[in-house]
Amino acid sequence: MCGIAGFISDRITPDEGRVIVGRMNDAQRHRGPDGEGVRSVCEAPTVVLGHRRLAIIDLSPRGAQPMVDSTERYWIAFNGEIYNFRDLRAELRSLGHSFHTDTDTEVILAAFVHWGQEAPSRLRGIFSFAIGDRDSGRVFLARDQMGVKPLYYFCCSEGFLFASEVRALLASDYVPRRLSREGLASYLMFGSVQEPHTLVDGVNSLPPGHFAWVDCADFVMQRYWSPTDFGNDHSFHQSNLEAIPDLLHDSIGLQMVSDVPLGCFLSGGIDSTAIAAEMQKANVSPVKSFSIIFDESKYDEREFSRIAASEIGTDHQELCLTGELVNRQIDSAISAFDQPSLDGINTYYVSGLVKEAGLTVALSGVGGDELFVGYDGFARQLQFQRLFGKCQHVPSGLRRIAASAIESAAKTEKAFKLASLIRGRTNPYFVARQVLAPTQITRLVKRELGLDPESWVTEWQTDSLSQSSHLDTINRISVLELQHYMLSTLLRDTDQMSMAHSLEVRVPLIDHCLVEKVLSVASHHKLDEKTQKPMLVHGCRGGIPDQCVYRPKRGFELPFEIWIRESLSGRVSDTMLRSNQPLFSRHEISGLWDRFSSRRVSWGRVWMLFILDAWITEHRITV
């Protein structure tokens, strides 16, 4: 796990390019405290690669990057881990390649030399990398199938820049610190910026399962993998269902490969408990596990994490997260956000706990709910789908009138969602996931910004919906969850908050080989009236304690409802009530604070706006 950066230009000298990439490297030092490298790959045009190293496999200096192949033509900067690198290395050796390190980096380079742009599809892991060609001056970029590892880019008249973090691109001094209107609409609607957008105008992410060829004249992007290629019931075979236990065991086992100490997050839910159980089966000594607990009993899950740790036999540690602790460290936590998010704070603190225990790698259950059909979100989605379908039988003119009437009188989040469903421009999946409805955003944001959130979401959702139109309802919701909520909230938050502590977090439940099989199983195998996520539970072959399987299901939440009214009240109210609001109507934002203070709305919108304001201030973003 590392950080990469690069610059391609026919206007900037190699010396200047190295300085620029050096600044970008410095901005993401936290991603790689174990080493740094900047290398000029080509001088006409200028191609410079940069790398920050977090050493996990082959800790020797031979693993330093950027790394060159034996011909000295191709250079690579790589972020992530390749779990099948030993199998690939054996295959490539049989094809005539030789190796001088025990790194997965060298295997990627040899795979690219041998298979070209087909190489990413052979990789099983989490990755983003850049390979520069000394002879042609071209750069090949690639990102892993699920989008676990980030890769951002920006194109301007001076050249093409890319990096693992948006803050690194800003540090180049070639990216204007200007707010993206699309990114803002996305953030306000969903509580996180939906890919490929960012909050910085002109900065985008390379989508998951894509590669791109870049030179001074062109940027050509191509998809090599997508979850929408699977999930059709007609492709179901009994063998897919029977393969799940072995694939689950294989995925977790492969992701335990490390030359540094590793552990796992353990909440006592099915996902994290499944991982801890499989890890412990493969270990002689107790696996180190970690969880967050709370004084507020409504949110605390220590009963289940302790049961799981005791039954499985892990060496368990806890951090009691209080409002006072969050208040003391809130500036550091906000600084960790490369892109702001409504969620993510919990990952920041548990990652700090793991790092303080001396570990560099942790396994997480992220993605289990989205892939294995967990939590009440799927039931809510189905309700929204049914209501949306009924509304489509009503003439559009009547729907607009009804929606407007509801919005004008609406005082609850449910009312605004109902109006969005009736209006019918936003797909019910996205309505269920929205924090603010388009009409609420229009009222909140100053008119002079010219924001049109409804037009944005209507256009943005079209591509995703068309790709998944062939799937049955449950598999379609699952794919949309993987492509949107998991990608743009869970995975991004996990990466940025863990890497702030120089901690690598691995996510074995969304190994792409496992995803392919699970999505190829018919939906009725994923539902059970008695058992949450039956495919995952059965896949663990009895390794999950019954108390964790049959516990009441609830999503992981922090006690922000309490904290914002108590420990964090001063900080948040100062932001919400200050007079010089650059983005929002003072009347609307003070009204929102009043409604929160009188318990008429929940904490989510208030916290989302607080985080956004702090992020804009820290990164000096202009409107």
Structure in words:
This protein is α+β, with helices and mostly antiparallel strands and 623 residues long. It has three domains: 2-176 and 204-225, 4-Layer Sandwich (Glutamine Phosphoribosylpyrophosphate, subunit 1, domain 1); 229-372 and 476-549, Rossmann fold (3-Layer(aba) Sandwich), CATH 3.40.50.620; 559-623, no CATH class. It is 44% helix and 15% strand. It contains 25 helices and 17 strands. The strands form three sheets. A six-stranded antiparallel β-sheet has the order 2-3-1-9-8-10. It has a six-stranded antiparallel β-sheet with strand order 4-5-6-7-11-12, with helices on one face. A five-stranded parallel β-sheet has the order 15-14-13-16-17, with helices on both faces. A hairpin with a 4-residue loop joins strand 11 and strand 12 (219-223). Helix 2 (85-94) packs across helix 3 (104-115) and helix 7 runs parallel beside helix 8 (302-312). The chain is globular and about 70 Å long. ATP binds at residues 292, 364-365. One of its GO terms (biological process) is asparagine biosynthetic process. Pathway: Amino-acid biosynthesis; L-asparagine biosynthesis; L-asparagine from L-aspartate (L-Gln route): step 1/1. Belongs to the asparagine synthetase family.
